Amino acid sequence: MRVWQAQSEIESPRAELMSAIISGADPPPPYVEPLRMPRAEGWADGRVWLRWKMDPQLASGAGTAFGGYLAALADHALGIETCSVLREGQAFTTSELQMHYFRPVLPGGELRIEAKVVHRGRSRIHAEVVFTCGDGRIAGKATATQVIIPLAPREVTADM
Question: Domain containing 35 — which CATH number?
Answer without folding.
Answer: 3.10.129.10
